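Design request, tokens follow.
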């Protein structure tokens, strides 16, 4: 695929699939592939294996490779695959090259996990990964509110394969300024905080958004996207109202149950087990019943 095709794939619902676990704690490969097929059959055209909703940091390197391979196999020309990579530079580069060799189209670079991140070091980190896989599109995942748009512009000037940005700082005004400082038209801007922030971020220049909710109800995510593309913010906000409580549960306590709530919804639908790895936790009983009630009112 050329970079324009990849840019178009980011201007969409960018699904972050969950990683289901079996009773013995291992990745449930059959359930994983069934959930991927459900997303594809539901109209999803961009998949991000090894994202945060997929519990990236709780997976072993071998598990991450297997998840990448399964996702590419299931996508099979039906979707663009954007693989999450991260950790230290050699580990991220190795994962990016594996994604390329497996047949993926892009990599999303997780926010560097380090207590000391300088702006120039941020550029160097992403540049090392992007230059290792010039054939792939590269999408930085930005969660750092201190990073300046000028630094992203510097990275983009050095690496033409940096085609988009997953921006996940919860501040629509800051996003608007950051995007313009970096180059509003140079990158595809993906609202990285999913449906709750998509309307405000679209108004400031985003053209796609990530989603964990889409694992549960693809129709709702796609309905919001269609409305936002049409500039119909009234309809988009009606979808926002329907998902509001679900997303509030995910965001509570610093997003402690972000993935847990999605898996609980899938468990309520009988699609996978609710099991989740530490440091996340399973929901208490009262919240389980609330999630089931919410999901029961959605178009599934």
């Amino acid at each position: 695929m050329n970079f324009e095709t990849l840019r178009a794939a980011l201007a969409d619902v960018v699904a972050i699939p969950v990683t289901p676990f079996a009773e013995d704690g291992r990745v449930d490969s059959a359930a994983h592939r069934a959930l991927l097929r459900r997303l594809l059959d539901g109209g999803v055209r961009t998949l991000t294996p090894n994202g945060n909703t997929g519990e990236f940091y709780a997976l072993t390197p071998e598990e991450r490779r297997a998840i990448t391979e399964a996702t590419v196999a299931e996508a099979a020309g039906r979707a663009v695959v954007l693989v999450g990579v991260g950790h230290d530079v050699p580990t991220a580069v190795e994962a990016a090259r594996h994604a390329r060799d497996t047949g993926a189209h892009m990599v999303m670079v997780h926010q560097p996990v380090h207590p000391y991140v300088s702006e120039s070091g941020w550029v160097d980190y992403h540049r090392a990964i992007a230059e290792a896989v010039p054939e792939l599109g590269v999408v930085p995942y930005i969660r750092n509110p201190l990073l300046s748009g000028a630094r992203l512009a510097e990275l983009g000037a050095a690496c033409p394969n940096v085609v988009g940005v997953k921006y996940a700082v919860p501040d629509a005004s800051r996003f608007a300024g950051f995007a313009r400082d970096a180059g509003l038209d140079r990158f595809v801007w993906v609202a990285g905080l999913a449906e709750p922030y998509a309307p405000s971020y679209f108004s400031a220049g985003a053209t796609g958004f990530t989603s964990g909710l889409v694992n549960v109800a693809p129709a709702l995510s796609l309905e919001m996207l269609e409305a936002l593309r049409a500039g119909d913010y009234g309809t988009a906000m009606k979808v926002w109202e329907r998902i509001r409580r679900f997303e509030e549960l995910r965001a509570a306590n610093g997003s402690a149950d972000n993935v847990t709530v999605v898996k609980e919804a899938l468990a309520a639908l009988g699609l996978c087990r609710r099991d989740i790895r530490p440091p996340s936790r399973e929901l208490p009983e009262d919240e389980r019943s609330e999630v089931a009630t919410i999901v029961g009112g959605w178009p599934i």
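Comment from the thread starter after seeing the answer: thanks! The beta strands are 13-15, 46-47, 80-85, 106-109, 137-142, 164-167, 188-191, 208-211.
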